[in-house]
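Inputs:
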Amino acid sequence: MKQVTRNLFITLIIVLLGGMSCTEVVNDLEPYMEPVISSDSIMPIDALLIEEQDSLAEEIQDSLSLIPKKCIYLTIDDAPLNGTARIDSIVSKAKVKTNIFMVGNCIDGSGKFRKYYNLLMENSYIEIYNHSYSHANNKYATFYKDPEKVLADFEKNQLDFSIPHKIARLPGRNIWQIGEKTRNYKQSGATSAELLVKSGYKVFGWDVEWRYNAKDYTPEQTIEELINEIETLYEKSRTFSKNHVVLLMHDQMFAKKNDMNDLETLILELKEKGFSFEYLSSYPE
Ligand SMILES: [Zn+2]
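Outputs:
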């Protein structure tokens, strides 16, 4: 028995040693394998064509992006007043981005205007900006004598009415200051603009105004005349920023529909001229 056990033990040792050496040989000399080409990695001609079309479309897209966009900014001052409800409904139907410069004391003075303020806040086509709380009580020269008071007036409006962007327009003044860039700076109000900018605001004037008669708020230019003014400014690059036209209008102009104040037609004609409607919050620096 002892001899049988000894033989079995020796056989086991030989098998184990043999096994180990086989393993070592396999590790040292890996057999050559033909590369496997899966049918998935061969691109059919159709797919090649699609890829070519895609890259052509990308090239066209790139060239189109080099053509400057014609941007128009509809800006409406002094809201909420009697024109707000119509403005709210027209821009919603036309689906165009619209910029409203709001005056807070109108809201505090009237339940109707507070409702209009809520309409504006809820309208996804409208962005609200700051046109001061008091509108200088329409005494501009006095107002601008004290820039600190002007800043406080704007800050009150900003906080009381949760205005999300620090974008301001001075009452009664076409003054621009965006960073270092300024326009129409030699008039009272310039120091206030500077202080607002130091406090984080961008101060916007306008490139063109749809003017109105002070007695009945009827527009002075026909839509055709206004479009011509806008096109000329655009073509001759007479705007504060090239390719960007800021149009000023006033809330009260749209209180009642008349022959002159057809905002829907103005929007349609601007669309036909290739203008894209933008928010001042995306105006270039
Ligand atoms: Zn105003």
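Remarks. Residues 77-78, 131, 135, 171 surround zinc ion (CB under 6 Å). The CA atoms of residues 129 and 163 lie 6 Å apart.
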